[in-house]
Structure formats: C-alpha cells, structure tokens
Specification:
The complex is a heterodimer of chains A (112) and B (112).
Chain A (H helix, E strand, L loop, with lengths): L5 E2 L2 E5 L4 E6 L4 E9 L5 E8 L4 E4 L2 E6 L4 E6 L8 E9 L6 E3 L3 E6 L1
Parallel strand pairs in A: 2-11
Antiparallel strand pairs in A: 1-3, 3-8, 4-5, 4-9, 6-7, 7-8, 9-10, 9-11
Chain B lengths: L3 E4 L2 E4 L5 E7 L6 E7 L5 E8 L5 E2 L8 E7 L2 E6 L8 E9 L1 E4 L3 E5 L1
Parallel strand pairs in B: 2-11
Antiparallel strand pairs in B: 1-3, 3-8, 4-5, 4-9, 5-6, 7-8, 9-10, 9-11
Classes of the chains: A mainly beta (112), B mainly beta (112).
Chain lengths: 112, 112
Amino acid sequence: SQQGEEDPQALSIQEGENATMNCSYKTSINNLQWYRQNSGRGLVHLILIRSNEREKHSGRLRVTLDTSKKSSSLLITASRAADTASYFCATAGSGNTGKLIFGQGTTLQVKP
Amino acid sequence: GAVVSQHPSWVICKSGTSVKIECRSLDFQATTMFWYRQFPKQSLMLMATSNEGSKATYEQGVEKDKFLINHASLTLSTLTVTSAHPEDSSFYICSARGGVQYFGPGTRLTVT
C-alpha cells in the first residue's frame, strides 16, 4: 500500500531554478528517505533523514522533516538538466523490518 | 558503494510460461531483500520481503503462489512469476538491505 502522497506530481522548471517537492505520510516512521529514478532505471538513494532530525543537507539537496505534520520536503537548488528524473520519498516504519513504503513520486523536468 | 544486480534486465515471455528473475548483492551479504513492482508512470509497490533461509513475507493482495520467492543464500534472491499473464507485465525491482537499501537496476517483464 502507498504511504502517502507527493506533490506536485509533475514539475517543470528552467535550469538554475530551485525545485521543491513535498511528501506526506500516514503512519509513524523511523526515517524518511528520498530516491531518484531516471526513466526505466533503478533507484538511487539521495538522502536519509531520521525521525528526530528536522533538516539535512547534501550538496545541492536540502531535506526537511516535520513529524507533527507527517510531511517532508526535498529542495534541489540551482537545478541542472541532468536533475531531470522522478523523485520518490520512502518511509521506514518504527519496527526494524527494513520495509520501505513509497510515495507517488514527482516527475521533475529541468529545461536547459 | 554497495551494488545490487538483477538478471535479466528485460525479458519477453509468452502467456502461461514462468519467468525467473535473480537479484544479487555483489559486495555485501543481505539477510533481507525486497521485491517491488512498478507499473508505468507509477510508484513502487512492495510485493514481498525475502528472508534468507526462511519463507518470504508477502504484502496484502500479492499472490504467493504466483510470485514465488526463494532466498537461498546471503547474496541471492529469486522471484519467479508463474503462469505469467499480460497483466503481469511490469518493471520488477529488488533491493537489498545493507544499512540503507540498495536497489537493483530493475527487470522489465513483458508478457505477450
């Protein structure tokens, strides 16, 4: 079952602009992760934020987590055409099963 | 980083036949692997958790007799789609748990 929703479903921006994607989830979590998927390919892990963290940075990526609102956001700054891909959030539950439940995903297009 | 491979990368089979997909962790041991299915322009749906040396745990709505999972070693899990039908055509992705989850490149199954 899907954990929640991501918005927007699709986002089109110009190179150099920032892209913000949001993710909501329904149950308590241990951590939340963001993944990237190029068309027809596997997933690449971008960043993990634990439930006791509020913000995390990695290069041009900034992730926030608000557990009271059960939501997270991924910000990509100074976007590049190579950032064009689908982005998924995934939540790991409070049990140590390792299971990930994915959001619906946001398709990002960065125009050169 | 850790690498997970899948074989084959794509397969076309006739309706009624069975197809086996392999998932290997190449440089680490994985007691737990996961199988996901992804339909076009949709998110990943967790199908089952593959546990080394024991039976797989299937998600609700996934037919265990149709999607046979065998996790015979710490580096190999296989998914067999039995008596495949056109509606089984999808992108199947495995992941292996090693800290974060590492995803394979996926297998595109087309059933004609």
